[in-house]
Fold this sequence. Notes:
The complex is a heterodimer.
Chain A lengths: L14 H16 L12 E6 L4 H13 L3 E5 L13 H8 L5 E6 L4 H6 L6 E6 L5 H15 L6 E5 L6 H10 L6 E5 L8 H9 L4 E4 L11 E4 L10 H10 L15 E3 L20 H20 L6
Helix pairs in contact in A: 1-5, 1-9, 2-9, 5-6, 5-9
Chain B lengths: L8 E8 L3 H7 L9 E9 L3 E8 L7 H7 L4 E6 L2 E7 L5 E3 L20 E6 L4 E4 L10
Antiparallel strand pairs in B: 1-3, 1-4, 2-3, 4-5, 6-7, 7-8
The structure holds zinc ion (ZN).
Zinc ion binds next to loops of chain B.
Amino acid sequence: MEAPRNIINITDLSTEEIDELIGVAQDIMANPADYQDICHGKQLATLFFEPSTRTRLSFESAMLSLGGATLGFSEAQSSSASKGESVSDTIRVVGNYVDIIAMRHPKEGAPIAAAMKTVVPIINAGDGGHFHPTQTLTDLLTIKRQKGTLEGLTIGLCGDLKFGRTVHSLVAAMLRYKGVKFVLISPDELKMPDYVKEEMDEAGAPWKEVAHMEDVMPELDILYMTRIQKERFFNEEDYLRLKGTFILNRAKLKTAKEDMIILHPLPRVDEISVDVDDDPRAMYFTQALCGKYIRMALILKLLGIRKEA
Amino acid sequence: MNIDGVNNGIVIDHIEAGKGIRIYEQLQLNKLDCSVAIIQNVASEKYGKKDIIKVDQDIPLDFDVLGYMDPHITVNHVKDGKLASKVHLELPETLTNVIRCKNPRCITSVEQEIKHIFKLVDREKKIYRCAYCDVEHKEY
Ligand SMILES: [Zn+2]
């Protein structure tokens, strides 16, 4: 059995480990009955110092589907954290009760501080705008499942590429695979940071920047949409003008490949209009389902549990 | 190496000229009873000018703090008027509770009890990153 390890950042996993997790998740999807009692007697704590209902439910559903139990809190208000109790103290206490912890915290590096206080494996379920490794793993599983491969794909990233850590993490993960190309679709104000472009250059992955998704739609195997937040703009006019340009609707999909897939980390506001939801290429709800299965695989890995051969 | 005036103690040599007084303050040498000397702007073959601190008492030194302040320092221990050992400092790989993270979004900004840890990521450029939030430390 492997020693407990924490997953704070996607870089904590080797490419082989990522591939293994994707493989296990796909096996769970194909044979859920084989896994339904595999974590019997094990407990997962979901410690959400900041609310994120979807992520928390995804972790809890994952553990329940493995036959394990869950406990925790969904916001600091309902825990002693609101009375000023530190992450360190909370973890020292909860670490005595459970076998594994998924935590979300508004401050960057909180799960690293937590990991220093317990031997129980910690999964980072988001630490501010810093890391969110299970979102990236979710994206990878969805791509693998829908495209059959993670190699040789052309990925369009659309929206807020400057502050969107989700896309930075996805780029870093996809650069591990051969033949991946990137098309960056964003307003000037929200362009991809130079350090990410340098990573793409270093990995030898071709990339280009465009201002309109319609220009590149036929080239894309994947269109990854992100939300443009109003707070990023100085004035309402700029925001409204740009927002329209980066909204995906059915009309803009006309020239897209038949088997292109549309992804979005959710929650969506209006950057994907609802008339796209029924399109067979819309995969953002499937993506949420994949999120549960990759979390199941991750829980198993960190607990050192394997399906009996 | 001139160890005059030190019988049992330390001579901190090759301090970058001008930094001597800061190291004196960091080590709180004003609190000692023994004889302490700061010699500034000494001619040095290697660096042009250097500062030297002599302390006639064997005080404990944190080489991480000193190495971070000035990695060119050498620390000489003197025993019975003779040079007993010589340590060349360098930038430490890890700094614990030496500098503080200035990122207001970092967990260290709200959680008092945790250690402030920085990792050396570029020795040439002397770049340290916070072990929690990965933000680079800037002196000013
Ligand atoms: Zn920090």
